[in-house]
Design brief:
single chain, 476 residues, alpha/beta, OB fold (Dihydrolipoamide Acetyltransferase, E2P), Rossmann fold, seven-stranded mixed beta sheet, globular, binds S-adenosyl-L-homocysteine
């Protein structure tokens, strides 16, 4: 006999004050000393909250009635707010978002780091709070999410094109709008969606691994580049004879239309053949140089390559790191986790030599092209896993660094990389991070030989809780 699960008694607490912004963009209340996480609440709200989960360390809940709205609230721009996992701070004013990001860095340094550090510099706000992203990846799905129950007798098309629902890998929102990328991103997605339906093309089913259309990636650059990548599971004549020509006819500004056949289970397109349907096989981005008088930098971005997703604010981030490095022109610089070599190129004109290290081979190839395009000859790029090859032989080959700039992924640096930095003891380390918690953890280890001289948060991702942070460490 199947045992019946005890019914979960949905408990609702009334008039709960929301006191803070917390992890993963959820706001915080306190109930008898226990933390209660509430998504889409704003500090300053008073709300009736239904408890949705009781864990050992904390509770989770959702607002059932907003009794008093916080003064930090503003109207979210997007109609998919709360359903889409993307921009979970849209209900907060931009000023409030900035101050919570600042606090997030301060809290991570104080609670996790526990080392002395100077007062944070005020966070650098982004110039655009919507439409700032240069890349969006949409998914075709045979099973879209329906927000309304279907009307009786109406057969709705189950296909959709948009973003995954948070926590549901096989369901997507048939996106009507996304305010993260500038026009014509929405219009291109709508056109491809409608035309594909009209042509009766099948959309991918993740569970069964069948269906033709898989992903639509739209990338743009500040110089007017517009790249559209269509990913399908197999070849299909209707794409080349119907869909692509129709798309080009309506959007002649597309500078690069690419087609990738991905028969694998994984969505990643790295390493797959890329067919050029129209225009170039890359995007061109330009960035103001580090110092006035220097020519701007030009970067070539390959279809599967990473480029900072907020390019205007990336220039602010790089300038911050550059100024902290305080280069005089004589230094040997290491740029660890160098990606496509953007920071490497950015600092190259102001030091003796710079060595970029990155483990994605394609990114290193792009980085070499970027150094060439910009006529920079004092650069070496090394492909390899920093956790494995950043040893004494490496230093013997590339020289003792005076300054190290490091920009690791969210997980932070491998302990071996931290050990090697302590061992090499360059005069300065500039630590660029997209996760202040792991940054604080790594800096705590480095404080054995370093003091933290400056901390500068930078907002790269408005409407989200994500924050970028740059710290300057100087050898004691
Ligand atoms: N500094 C670059 C990229 C930063 S993203 C920019 O501003 O564009 C972090 C990079 O670290 C990614 O390109 C990722 O591929 C690389 N990476 C992650 N783990 C690594 C490792 N163990 N060794 C070398 N590179 C790594």
């Amino acid at each position: 006999m199947r045992r019946r699960r005890p019914a979960f008694k949905a408990e609702t607490l009334t008039n709960v004050p929301i006191i803070d912004a917390g992890a993963e963009g959820k706001a915080i209340a306190k109930i008898d000393g226990q933390v209660l996480f509430v998504p889409f609440a704003a500090p300053g709200d008073v709300a009736d909250i239904q408890i949705t989960a009781k864990k050992k360390q904390y509770l989770e809940g959702r607002i059932v009635k907003l009794v008093e709205a916080s003064a930090l609230r503003t109207k979210p721009e997007c109609k998919h707010f709360t359903l889409c996992g993307g921009c979970r701070w849209q209900h907060l004013t931009y000023e409030a978002q900035l101050s919570f990001k600042q606090k997030q860095v301060d809290d991570a340094f104080a609670r996790i780091g526990k080392f002395p550090y100077p007062s944070l510099r005020p966070i650098k706000a982004a110039p655009e709070i919507y439409h700032y992203r240069n890349k969006l990846e949409f998914t075709f799905s045979s099973r879209r999410w329906f927000t309304e129950p279907p009307q009786e007798g109406v057969q709705e098309d189950p296909r959709g094109l948009g973003f995954h629902l948070p926590g549901m890998f096989d369901r997507i929102i048939d996106l009507e709008e996304c305010h993260l990328q500038a026009s014509p991103s929405d219009a291109i997605r709508h056109f491809v969606n409608q035309k594909s339906k009209a042509l009766n093309l099948s959309y991918y089913d993740t569970k069964r691994h069948e269906g033709l259309l898989r992903n639509l990636i739209v990338r743009n650059s500040t110089t007017g580049g517009l790249m559209v990548i269509l990913v399908s599971k197999t070849e299909d004549e209707r794409l080349s004879s119907e869909l692509f020509p129709a798309l080009m006819a309506v959007f002649p500004k597309i500078t690069s239309l690419l087609w990738v056949i991905n028969p694998k289970v994984s969505e990643a397109i790295t390493g797959l053949e890329i067919k050029v349907i129209h225009g170039e096989s890359w995007l061109t981005e330009q960035m103001e140089a580090a110092a006035e008088g220097d020519p701007p930098l030009t970067f070539r971005i390959a279809p599967a390559s990473f480029f900072q997703t907020n390019p205007r604010q990336a220039a602010v981030l790089y300038r911050t790191a550059f100024e902290m490095a305080g280069l005089t022109g004589d230094e040997v610089v290491y740029d660890l986790y160098s990606g496509t070599g953007t920071i490497t190129c950015y600092v190259a004109r102001h030091c003796k030599k710079v060595v970029g290290v990155e483990y994605v081979e394609e990114a290193v190839a792009d980085a070499r092209v970027n150094a060439n395009i910009n006529g920079l000859e004092n650069i070496a790029f090394v492909a390899g896993d920093l956790g494995k090859m950043f040893d004494d032989a490496f230093v013997a080959q590339y020289g003792q660094p005076d300054v190290v700039i490091t920009d690791p992924p969210r997980a932070g640096m491998h302990p071996k990389v931290v050990d090697q930095l302590l061992n090499l003891a360059p005069e300065k380390i500039v630590y660029v991070s997209c996760n202040p918690a792991t940054q604080a953890r790594d800096i705590a280890l480095l404080t054995e030989k370093y003091s933290v001289e400056a901390v500068q948060p930078v907002d790269m991702f408005p409407q989200t809780h994500h924050v970028e942070n740059v710290a300057l460490l100087v050898r004691k």
